[in-house]
Design brief:
This protein is mostly helical. The protein has one domain. It has 14 helices and no strands. The longest helix is centred in the N-terminal third of the chain and has 47 residues. The chain starts with 24 loop residues before the first helix and ends in a 6-residue tail after the last helix. The relative contact order is 0.12.
Length: 381
């Protein structure tokens, strides 16, 4: 009996990232002679190095932040329970006090490690470098003269370390790539310049020059409609989707869950002291006798609920949930508008080039918003 061969999973059923840069051969083949520009191994190699670093530092920042937050929350709740025990006229074991102090110390140490190791900063630098590489790659197609020269180059290796004919297109692109990667080495310095220079998003890596060959420009426009416009819109929509294809909860679900829990626990924390009036009324009606015990329990409950509410809000702040959702919503709207302009029937080559430049400016602005937002991400302090 023949065994069934495992079939590859159809596209779309598994989430793929960065397929705008890591384009498959079938796609590039249909856009030759510019197809070889859509996937450049040298660019991809450096891109994925920063991608791995970004994921690594993000994971560490979130892990240490969450552990610190949970430890701090547990310590504060235990303090509230200690006050409850003391209020009831009992004594908590000495070992319990030591454990609470150790948990609080662990929370501080985890926070200190994240600060000293600069995981948040390193994550932002890696994200900055990764996305600037993506922008460098796509902004190349604004330079019609160079793209046409590269399209006519017989070699499939576009960025090369080997010397070629003087002033040819491959050498020019290689020179630009070396200059770009040299600037990336500044790390935090490059990031700070980008964030504090208001003109940075409008500054292109490549000069904007017109296409003279309508066929090449048409192939470029058709490819970028999918790889740049559609990918940017679809990625942002996926980030703010009501249901996440990659996680148990989407960003919206995280936000709604966190907001609901924080609001409910805060409301209950406020109602707990107010319930003292009910206790006094019940006592006046001789329904209960020991009001002190009720008062102690209600105050302890109020304190625990307030701690939980603050912790959930700190969790939401660490993930920058509401601001990130709002940012992606604005970006999706803007990209959609630009895509409609780009695909406008009867549009000229100059018109499409101008729209493509506007998209690159918008992508750079979105990157700035993201980096500023993540610079404020904090779980405790």
């Amino acid at each position: 009996m023949m065994q069934k061969q495992s079939q590859p999973i159809p596209p779309g059923l598994t989430v793929e990232y960065n397929h705008d840069l890591d384009v498959n051969a079938d796609f590039t083949r249909q856009f030759q002679p510019v197809g070889k520009l859509l996937r450049q191994p040298v660019v991809l190699d450096l891109f994925y190095r920063y991608e791995r670093e970004a994921k690594n530092y993000k994971r560490r920042f979130h892990l240490l932040g969450m552990l610190s937050l949970v430890s701090g929350t547990v310590a504060l709740i235990c303090v509230a329970l200690e006050l409850l025990v003391a209020g009831l006229g009992k004594h908590s074991p000495g070992l319990a006090t030591v454990i609470i102090e150790l948990v609080a110390l662990a929370s501080f140490c985890l926070l200190l490690i994240a600060r000293v190791r600069c995981y948040r900063t390193r994550w932002r630098i890696a994200c900055f470098a990764r996305e600037r590489i993506r922008q460098w790659h796509f902004q190349l197609f604004l330079d019609g003269e160079l793209v046409e020269g590269l399209a006519k180059t017989p070699s499939t290796v576009i960025i090369s370390g080997k010397p070629g004919a003087p002033n040819n297109a491959t050498d020019e692109l290689t020179r630009r790539w070396r200059e770009f990667t040299e600037n990336l080495k500044s790390g935090a310095g490059s990031l700070d310049d980008f964030l504090h220079d208001s003109a940075a998003p409008a500054r292109m890596f490549h000069p904007v020059t017109p296409y003279r060959d309508p066929d090449i420009e048409g192939r470029v426009s058709c490819a970028l409609a999918t790889l740049r416009f559609n990918h940017q819109a679809q990625y942002s929509r996926r980030k703010i989707a009501h249901e996440s294809p990659t996680a148990a909860l989407s960003a919206r679900e995280h936000h709604h869950w966190a907001e609901s829990v924080a609001s409910i626990t805060l409301l209950l924390a406020v109602l707990a002291p107010a319930a003292q009036l009910v206790v006094l009324l019940a006592h006046s009606l001789r329904l209960i006798e020991d009001t002190k015990t009720w008062h102690t329990w209600l105050f302890a409950a109020a304190l625990v609920l307030a701690v939980l509410s603050a912790s959930v809000r700190a969790y939401r702040t660490g993930l920058t949930l509401p601001e990130e959702i709002e940012s992606y919503e604005e970006y999706v709207t803007r990209v959609g508008e630009l895509r409609e302009l780009f695909l406008l029937p009867g549009g000229t080559m100059e018109h499409r080039s101008a729209v493509l430049k506007d998209l690159e400016i918008e992508a750079a602005r979105e990157l700035r918003r993201f980096l500023v937002l993540k610079g404020k991400a904090t779980f405790i302090a």
